[in-house]
């Protein structure tokens, strides 16, 4: 099935049509800088631009960097607070399925990427403006886990170890990797995952930092789909909702 996937990020809003059975983009993706401030109306305008560019009228999936329950935004840690309470289908149209960005990326990685075929507990973490999390048990997503907000050394983990913090504080890859490692160890101790997948924008630079990270028996691997995971996962969620309209509204 061909579906439009849109990934709303802190710096860019990216969209492309996706072949959801193959997990691949069918047309070149379009990126629009995220409007400032990233309020719902301005973001909806950018989403409309993407819809128009692809001349799209079918189902579409849209990611959002916060908790999304039954299509309604519940938290907004890194975007304008006016998002809280916004319904995805009111804002983007009835054809839109909205879900958490890390959940979308995780679903794509579990189906077509680094987590493919992996059973047991798998944790996908995305490092970007914040830290996103997607938890899978035998391939089934536990949505909206929000593990980027656990406390480490008196601070939220994403305020110590997101990729944004690395850039803002100009941390060396090694220094930043030590912070990430401390965070991953905590997650391992809490969840005992059989695999941790590192996604988000930083995953394409895995060679620079993964060598500093050692979690003993727990493998830590980079995401395979990189920046396309959110777009592909969003499209997959919309395709799933189109197949089973009631049961899956708002969830992949
Ligand atoms: C948000 C999550 C989101 C993550 C990555 C966090 O601040 O609370 O919902 O998945 O950032 O964007």
From TrEMBL:
Coiled-coil annotated spans: none
Top-level taxon of origin: Bacteria
Pfam families listed in its UniProt record: ROK
Gene3D superfamilies the UniProt entry points to: 3.30.420.40
NCBIfam families in the cross-refs: PolPhglucPhase
Family classification: Belongs to the ROK (NagC/XylR) family.
Protein name (record): ROK family protein
Species in which this protein is naturally found: Microbispora hainanensis
């Amino acid at each position: 099935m061909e579906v439009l996937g849109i990934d709303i990020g802190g710096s860019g809003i990216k969209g492309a049509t996706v072949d959801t059975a193959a997990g691949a983009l069918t047309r070149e993706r379009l990126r629009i800088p995220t409007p400032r401030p990233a309020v719902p109306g301005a973001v909806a305008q950018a989403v409309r631009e993407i819809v128009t560019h692809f001349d799209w009228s079918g189902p579409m999936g849209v990611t959002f960097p916060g908790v999304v329950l039954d299509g309604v935004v519940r938290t907004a840690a890194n975007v304008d607070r006016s998002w809280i309470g916004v319904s995805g289908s009111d804002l983007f149209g009835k054809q839109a399925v909205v879900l958490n960005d890390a959940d979308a990326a995780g679903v794509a990685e579990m189906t077509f990427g680094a987590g493919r075929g992996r059973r047991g507990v798998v944790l996908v973490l995305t490092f970007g403006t914040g830290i996103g999390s997607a938890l899978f048990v035998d391939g089934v997503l536990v949505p909206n886990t929000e593990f980027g907000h656990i406390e480490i050394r008196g601070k939220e983990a994403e305020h110590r170890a997101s990729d944004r913090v690395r850039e803002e504080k100009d941390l060396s890859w090694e220094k930043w990797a030590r912070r990430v490692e401390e965070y991953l160890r905590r997650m391992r101790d809490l969840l005992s995952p059989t695999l941790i997948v590192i996604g988000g924008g930083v995953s394409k630079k895995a060679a620079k930092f993964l060598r500093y990270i050692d979690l003993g028996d727990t493998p830590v691997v980079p995401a395979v789909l990189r920046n396309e995971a959110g777009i592909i996962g969003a499209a997959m969620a919309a395709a799933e909702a189109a197949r089973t309209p009631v049961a899956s509204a708002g969830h992949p």
